[in-house]
Amino acid sequence: MSQVQSPEPELVTTDKPANNKALSQFLAELKSQVTHSASIDVVKSALDKAINYPNQLRYNNTSLYIGMVAAIFSGVGYWLHLEQQGRYYRYSDIDFAVFIACIVGLVIAVSMFFARRKKLDKVSRLFRDETLKHLYNMTDCPRQFLDNAEHKFVDFNRGNYSQDVEWGKEIDFHSEAGLLRASVVYHHYVDRRTETYTESDGKGGTRTRTRTVYDHYYRQGVILPPLNKTTRLVLSESRLSKRWSQSFMPASREFEKNFRVQADSQFDAAKFLEPAVVVACEQLGNKLKNLTIEFAHDGSLLINQHNTNLLNPAMDHDITNPVAFKEELLNDTSLFTVNSIFGFVNQIIRHTS
């Protein structure tokens, strides 16, 4: 999964003092409060607590920066001193001890810096994940549902070695047809291939070898229950295994350039791919890489694509800026890719129901 992006350094004007020890304790309290939260109110309460925290929600790393600079300059300065004495890398045990002390000091300072940043990132990600869990009423997909999906959809047949829908999350989708439960699924497949390479034969020549290579690929998509009477139809940017014998192509050069169509019935494909839907498919294809739109035999819909960060989007803010972070978290447009898919689905409902 993608992470909460560390925001660019900001010049924050605040009268609040910095207290590193108190901040670490406070972050631990927030983590304890929000982990496995029972409702969105728990998350909101923790965010309000962060907003009202009397100290800065940023670590004061001045001493670490000084330590890093001191370690580097001390090590380089001592090395220059030895070179001026003509030692030329003939160092004593004391010299090595000085170099080791400088390296250890630098490593400790750098490690502490990244540990502090990681601590802030982990708390921020926790807030994001718990908020999305409540906003979208997120629950785990049953294993049986995932196993059935693997056999139901053509797009999950990718990979000549293995295919697996590893996990999924059910979320609420307030569509134009009412509340639907959508399933965001994680698709992992593997292609196996053999390649040749050359290596030294130890006698001044080369020899050719072969080896088996396993290429891993990951996709993430959304499965929805039947929206209309459309079944057995696949629109994909990739060449997928053939399940339906008929093909169809609407009168759109952009669509023809980006999608391949297989269907059980040309009539049903033409009925679904009316001009407004064709345009919606083209627009979604411009937003999502390696897109597949597939209606299974029972009418359930899969929209699968290359982006694997559907449920863990990058955030513009984090816990160090709690006011802006709260506003961003509670905006239900955080799942940008999912909402793009939902917007497309609403267009399907509007034009084909």
Summary, kept brief:
The longest helix is centred in the N-terminal third of the chain and has 43 residues, at 93-135.
Q: What is the average per-residue confidence, as pLDDT, rounded to a whole number?
A: 92
Helix content: 40-55%
Strand order of the largest sheet: 1-2-3-4-8-7-5-6
Strand percentage: 15-25%
One letter per element, helices H and strands E, the order comes to HHHHEHEEEEHEHHEEHH
What value does the Rg take, in angstroms?
A: 28 Å
The largest β sheet comes out as: 8 strands, antiparallel
Query: Helix/strand/pairing class, anyone?
Result: alpha+beta
Euclidean distance between termini CA atoms: 35 Å
**Unreliable stretches:** 6-13
Overall body shape: flat
Number of helices: 10
Number of strands: 8
Detail the topology: elements first, then pairings.
Blueprint: H1 20-34, H2 40-51, H3 62-84, H4 93-135, E1 139-140, H5 143-152, E2 162-175, E3 178-200, E4 206-224, E5 233-236, H6 253-258, E6 260-263, H7 266-272, H8 275-287, E7 292-295, E8 301-305, H9 322-329, H10 336-352
Antiparallel strand pairs: 1-2, 2-3, 3-4, 4-8, 5-6, 5-7, 7-8
Helix pairs in contact: 1-4, 2-9, 3-4, 8-10
